[in-house]
Design brief:
Chain A contains 14 helices and eleven strands. Chain A is α/β, with parallel strands linked by helices and about 400 residues long. In chain A, helix 7 packs across helix 11. In chain B, a hairpin with a 4-residue loop joins strand 4 and strand 5. The chains are: A alpha/beta (about 400), B mainly beta (about 140).
Amino acid sequence: MADPRALRDKTCVVGIGETAYTRGTTKNPLQLSMEASLAAVNDAGIKPSQIDGVVLPNGHNGGATAGDYAANFGIDDLYYTASYPEMGGAQIVSAMEGAVMALASGICTYVLVPHCSYFYTGARARDMTANPANALQSAETIRDYYRPFGVGAPPQHYAWMAQRHMALYGTTQEQLGAVAVAMRKHAQLHPNAVMRGKPMTMADYMASKWITWPYKLLDCSLETDGAGAFIMTTAERAKDCRQKPVHVSGIASGHPFPPHDIPNRPDILRIGLDFSAPRAYAMAGVKPSDIDFAEIYDCFTGQTILQIEGAGFCKKGEGGPFCENGNIELGGTLPVNTHGGLLSQAHNTSMNHVIEAVAQLRGGCDERQVKDAELGVVTGWGGHGHGSIAILRS
Amino acid sequence: MSTAVKHDDFQLPVMSGYAKESYDLCKAHKLSFQRCAKCKTFRQPPRPLCNKCHSFETEWAPVKGTGKLYAWTIPMNPIGKAWVSYMPYVAAIVELDEGPRMATWVTDVPHDQLKLNMPVKVWYDDLTSEVTVAKFKPA
């Protein structure tokens, strides 16, 4: 039987590109997607037509189709395309996993993974979650079994988990707030963060309006527009690329059980990452204490805490205290979301998390650089708790 | 304190297939859950195949209507105009004594007295002439 450890460090991210993140735009998703993707290609130092694999995290809903890239980049023989819409927000890291396999198998030589989020100008999340046409596997469950009770928006489903975490483990509102405050601090250091120049204190957090108890407005991620992309190739080819390669040491995707309904899971706090993280660490041959920083899918503060636990940085139930006293801020034991995350940089699913992790491992992130960063974790969360994780090495 | 919802302009279930079977039983005020007719494992939400014995055979099993509060949230920012007059409501996960859990409301309790595992019992909210939903209040 194949051993997934054979994939350790075999593939690399060699190019990253990102548009400005904004609240409102006159550009359409196709244009934003092409801008970010071309920037990533140029960053890698290859020609657009050298791309022979396009792995789309969200299929045609992610801003552009594989056919759009073939037509715009002049790829007259596209070898491979795939998409991961069922993973919800975990789709970016799962798409990276798909790219790893397409490259390591020899099917592709250069793979583009692009994504555009149009959450400010396009449809609201609350309108997408219950629409089966969006391919979310839980959409019919939400429509028929949650919406009749006024539960339809992501913060509402996810607040159930936060509430239970608080009731079982004593997690406090201030500990949720510590996550939001840390992300906002980091956003002050990133030139492309929507919340740069808008600092926030714990008092601001506590005073923000309730969305759905125990979540306040500042527990919730941003709705923004913007696109990002990364280019991957094999470790051997990466040596010839323009930038210092960032290796994929471990990668895995996981699912809560059953995936499509939160209430009927034996334990609603057992998330996809609980399944995938041990597999990713085994592939990488490292342990959580080896990790220098983490870019965690911070759709909501409580989900960030659940994933910090799931990724092994502390025990289940200890995520609240772990986030206090600056522990997840730059200078703490585990800097989390050094770009400001979905909470304070922008919501580009976790494309912006991958891009930030690669930038940190290349070095040169100026005042937000994690000192001597060699190993970073990126997580994805989506579709009611799917969890993907990549362990990246400089 | 929240009471019965009489608006008909919020999102109702699509009344077809398993959802119609499920809500029709609610309409008869007989809260029931789909389970495997062979090995009696619940399938909630309903689905074609038993994930234990892989039988396609199903039956609807009525429950007593008593259970406990598993988790909750209190929406205060409406997802639609119809919900505004009911806010804040307690959108909960209730675990029935027989095992299956469901999204629902817990009514008739001050919010500061909500407690994990508090006992609850069902009541029926006839939303429209077609759709009745099962809600809960302290037992």
